[in-house]
Amino acid sequence: MRFRLTPRETSFYDMFAASADNIVTGSKLLMEMLGADTSARAEIAERMRAAEHAGDDATHAIFHQLNSSFITPFDREDIYNLASSLDDIMDFMEEAVDLVVLYKVEELPKGIEQQIEVLARAAELTAEAMPNLRTMSNLTEYWIEVNRLENQADQIHRKLLAHLFNGKYDAIEVLKLKQIVDILEEAADAFEHVANTVETIAVKES
Question: Where are the transmembrane segments (predicted)?
Fold first, then answer.
């Protein structure tokens, strides 16, 4: 491993950890929405929107630090990609919750709870992994498990689509629910992008 860090650079690690912790908050709000009455969903969406704004602030802080730092702990492009992918996760989760409210969804499709559980687990793993960027240690199991979870998310997504097209729902409801489960699938993909970026960083720094 190349030791080329200065005290100034350590703030990147803290900012990545804060961004990942905020994603855990978002995943918990997704879980909360799952069990909430329709009357409570608007308030959950407001809290999710606040979390998404906090995520934006964290991302902008990383970009600002990147633009003002002469020396960075690892490649600038990788810092940018990692920050952007973390931000994408939060954006997708917020969009899913917002659409549940905007579309006035009465009942979420059976199986979506499995999709959200996968996202919650990926969020926990990502938050646990970010502090390890300081030493580039104990990261291999993280990206392997997140990739496994993304494959699981793909299977769940396909089953959800099959369920939506089984004739139980009318056409408009299918369109609404499909957009929500598709966005949650994009969140799973974004978790994989984060894990792949971390793997790229670790390989370069080894």
Answer: none
